[in-house]
Amino acid sequence: MTRLKALIGLNMFCDIGSTRLNQLLKFFGKPENILKVPRQELMAVSGIGEEIAGKIISLKEEDIDEELNLARKYNLKIITVDDEGYPENLKHIPDPPIVLYVRGTLRSEDKFSIAIVGSRRASFYGLSCAEKFAADLSERNFTIVSGLARGIDTSAHKGALKHGKRTIAVIGSGFRHLYPSENQELAEEISRCGAIISEFCINAKPLPQNFPRRNRVISGLSLGVLVVEAARNSGALITADCALEQGREVFALPGKIDSGNSFGTNGLIKQGAKLVSCADDIIEEFNLPITIKLNKEETKETSFGSRVCLSGNESLLYNLISDQPVLLDEIAERTDIGIPEISGILLKLQIRKLIKQLPGKQFIRSAS
């Protein structure tokens, strides 16, 4: 039996995570060896009781072959924690999945991911904010990660897809029981523009206990988690807890104090999560290289966020400002844009830390 087949087989038992696997490997060296030893030797390993040992010895190679056949049927790629293509961020959480089933493609740039999660019974405000944040962050070349659930998750995925950007959905079931069923079409679109991921074997049903495990993968794939709306016992709060345990940033959108859906997010803010009102509030927390797109010929590297795309007039004004101070009136004389619009654009460029205002209404580019 190959190492891949052995890992797939061990992963088919939900009781064996990476922690127990590592304990077994200390004793038996290779995954394929684990499936050959008798029950009593398995039970001698810390954390492996009689029930788990019984499951391991009952596994047959034809069960694994059937799983591989199903993977081909559902057009899935199977990657293990040993593989080069395993997501870099996820590899370093305390309990990474042994195996990932993937429909679509994972890319190295997905390490720049932000998770957006929240209530399944979201308000119009929450849904529109989730879509807006996802659209703005994906325009800066962040991959949007969420859980394919109703409500906030669905809006987050759609926000990225509307701009043809990457998004990853992490599901709490096997691909044979994709949940919720009304998101089948959305899932197909996600697989074309990103990936759907599950750590559960293909026949696994969407059982309640699967979703907390799913949530740690959502946060584990990401640099930070934005909670848009969350009630008192929302699963989104579990994702936020996972993020903190994994050393990820946690962001929260404030809500009305008398709204049940705001209880969780306002509570997170009280506990120290960063209150956000726009995508730049998230981006500024990460010291990442950024390429600012000026035109087809020119780019500028800074240390703020991901990629910022400037509109036509933003690009025009930015190109009129250099490392030497230039007056507002001089900028106006060289364009056909009115002073009020110029002032608004210059303010946006200042907020993005691309330019600075000096005394006397003079402007200069920020240092790279």
CATH fold-level name of the largest domain: Rossmann fold
Shape: elongated
Query: What is the helix tally?
Result: 17
Quantity of strands, as a count? 15
CATH class of the largest domain: Alpha Beta
How many individual domains?
3
Q: How confident overall, as mean pLDDT?
A: 88
Poorly predicted segments: 290-307
Main beta-sheet annotation: 9 strands, mixed
Beta-sheet strand percentage?
Answer: 15-25%
Termini separation: 54 Å
Strands side by side in the biggest sheet: 1-2-6-5-4-3-7-8-9
Question: What brief labels describe this structure?
Answer:
DNA polymerase, domain 1, single chain, Arc Repressor Mutant, subunit A, Rossmann fold, 3 domains, three-stranded mixed beta sheet, nine-stranded mixed beta sheet, alpha/beta
Helix-strand layout with pairing:
Elements: H1 3-11, H2 18-28, H3 31-34, H4 39-43, H5 50-58, H6 61-73, E1 77-80, H7 88-91, E2 99-104, E3 113-117, H8 124-139, E4 143-146, H9 152-161, E5 167-170, H10 184-193, E6 195-198, H11 210-220, E7 224-227, H12 235-245, E8 249-252, H13 263-270, E9 274-275, H14 279-283, E10 290-293, E11 299-302, E12 308-309, H15 312-320, E13 326-327, H16 328-333, H17 339-351, E14 355-358, E15 362-365
Parallel strand pairs: 3-4, 3-7, 4-5, 5-6, 7-8, 8-9, 10-12
Antiparallel strand pairs: 1-2, 2-6, 10-11, 13-15, 14-15
